[in-house]
Design brief:
Nucleotidyltransferase, domain 5; 4-stranded mixed sheet; 170 residues; alpha+beta
Length: 170
């Protein structure tokens, strides 16, 4: 930790391990909106953010708390792979209705192992019609997206939620 008068402190969010400013600057230089995916201890949060010098503007947002309104089972997890897929799908539909057809994925400091929850949300965004650059090797399989590894009835909940989102987005 830098304490001397000739040493310079890093930004607080960098010291706390919350922001990688080099990666953020690279993403912002592209000018495209960022599709932000964060998985917390209880839910997933997906947002579409546009850069503004005074602070990022959130164009569209969807979280795991909103899943119940679209027919998600009450006892089911709101941060599982199928829940992340549905949240990404809903974000993609709301981004398209807001006039945005492309974005770049912002995963923050999360690990980028293939098939994880963040890439399940990415798959949902792509299935909704949002153009996000990606490699096909990172997306989870259809069995994991439909929840076959959790419960057989979860696949029907995923389909029902997708249909409800389709009807809501018109």
């Amino acid at each position: 930790m830098a304490h001397g008068k000739s040493q310079r402190l890093r930004f607080k969010r960098r010291r706390n391990g919350k922001t990688d400013y080099r990666r953020r600057l690279r993403m912002l230089r592209g000018g495209a909106p960022r599709a932000i995916v964060r998985v917390s201890n209880t839910q997933v949060v997906c947002q579409l953010a546009q850069f503004d010098p005074e602070g990022d503007r959130i164009v569209a947002s969807f979280s795991g708390n909103n899943l119940a309104a679209y027919g998600w089972p009450v006892g089911a997890s709101t941060k599982s792979v199928p829940a992340c897929y549905v949240a990404g799908y809903a974000l993609g539909k709301s981004a398209l209705s807001a006039g945005h057809d492309s974005a770049i994925l912002d995963i923050g400091l999360a690990s980028s192992s293939p098939g994880n929850r963040i890439f399940a949300a990415l798959k949902g965004m792509i299935d909704a019609g949002l153009d996000v650059p990606h490699g096909d090797g990172v997306l989870p399989s259809d069995d994991r997206v439909n929840g076959a590894h959790i419960d057989d009835s979860l696949g029907a909940a995923v389909d029902a939620a997708k249909n409800a989102i389709e009807e809501a987005s018109g």
